[in-house]
């Protein structure tokens, strides 16, 4: 059970008329419990905001990695396309040269 729940239960039970403690003690206990709760609550909120900040940073980095990877893929495709065009042009020039030699032998 979290500490603040325990303290809340104690404060709830001690605030009734059945409490035989001096009047100043429950007030001190309430203030002490409020301080503990406030400090714990601030700590939790700080942890949550830190976690959200880290998640945002990590998602940005992942997005940048995905963009870089996408750029590499596009560049790779462009290089592959250029390479395929060069191979095709080289093959065409070889075929033209072979056809010319074949025509020269026949003609």
Brief description of this entry?
GO terms for molecular function: growth hormone-releasing hormone activity; growth hormone-releasing hormone receptor binding; neuropeptide hormone activity; peptide hormone receptor binding. The protein has 107 residues and is mostly helical. It is built from 2 helices and no strands.
Brief descriptors of the model:
single chain, 107 residues, mainly alpha, 2 helices, 89% helix, rod-shaped
Number of strands: 0
Question: Radius of gyration, Cα only, in angstroms?
Answer: 39 Å
- How far apart, in Å, are the first and last alpha carbons? 102 Å
What structural class results from the helix and strand content? mainly alpha
Number of helices: 2
Order of helices and strands: HH
- Shape field: rod-shaped
- Helical percent range? over 70%
Residue windows where pLDDT falls under 50 for at least 5 positions: none
- Strand portion: under 5%
Taking the sheet with the most strands, its summary is:
none
Let me know the average pLDDT.
78
Family: Belongs to the glucagon family.
Subcellular location: Secreted
Keywords: Secreted, Signal
Protein name: Somatoliberin
Give a description of the structure.
This protein is mostly helical. The chain has two helices and no strands. It has helices spanning 3-14, 24-106. Helix 1 packs antiparallel against helix 2 (24-106). The longest helix has 83 residues, at 24-106. The radius of gyration is 39 Å and the shape is rod-shaped. The model has no long low-confidence stretch (mean pLDDT 78). Keywords: Secreted, Signal. Belongs to the glucagon family. One of its GO terms (molecular function) is growth hormone-releasing hormone receptor binding. InterPro entries: Glucagon_GIP_secretin_VIP, VIP/GHRH-like. It is found in: Secreted.
């Amino acid at each position: 059970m979290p500490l603040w729940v325990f303290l809340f239960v104690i404060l709830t039970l001690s605030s009734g008329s059945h409490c035989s403690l001096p009047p100043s003690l429950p007030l001190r206990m309430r203030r002490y419990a409020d301080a503990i709760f406030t400090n714990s609550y601030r700590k939790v909120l700080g942890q949550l905001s830190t976690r959200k900040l880290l998640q945002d940073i990590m998602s940005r980095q992942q997005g940048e990695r995905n963009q870089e990877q996408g750029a590499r893929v596009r560049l790779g495709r462009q290089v592959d396309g250029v390479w395929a065009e060069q191979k095709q042009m080289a093959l065409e020039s070889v075929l033209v040269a072979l056809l010319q030699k074949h025509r020269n032998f026949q003609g």
